[in-house]
Amino acid sequence: xxxxxxxEMYVAGLLADEGWNIYFPRRDKGFDYVVTLETxxxxxxxxxxxxxRYPQDGKSDKSTYGYSGKLSLLHPxxxxxxxxxxxxxxxxxxQHIAYMPRGQVRPRSRRGYRCVPSSLRPGIVTPRRxxxxxxxGPGLLAMRSANWx
Length: 149
Prior knowledge:
Helices cover about 15% and strands about 40% of the residues. By secondary structure, the protein is mainly beta. The strands form two sheets. A five-stranded mixed beta sheet has the order 1-2-3-5-6. Strands 4, 7, 8 and 9 form a four-stranded antiparallel beta sheet that branches. The protein is globular. The N and C termini lie far apart (about 35 Å).
């Protein structure tokens, strides 16, 4: 059973450790939470949508791996955060976390959106070369950029 709330709270903890303030909605109607960070140039605001990725035994290798599906809300300054857990795990430390800006979330020709910044071979998630700067520590730091979008 996938535990997306665990992934949401794991990411919230990492963001809090980096000084972001976290605001949880009264009702979950799109974003999991909104984060803010005071900087010298002003306050940054990032709506956050977290998606846990839990590959199961028998999952075939994929040259592109990430999220494909519906997103109920979009915002130019949002982050789609993809939390990649090890093969067969539903909790514990993720293999990687990708902090993807709205500009990397592409509409699909048939309903929904697609963001595939990694590959999956054999059961191990690897950031694709073009997207390495969005993963883990560098990705978390990239969210501080004024030109995040």
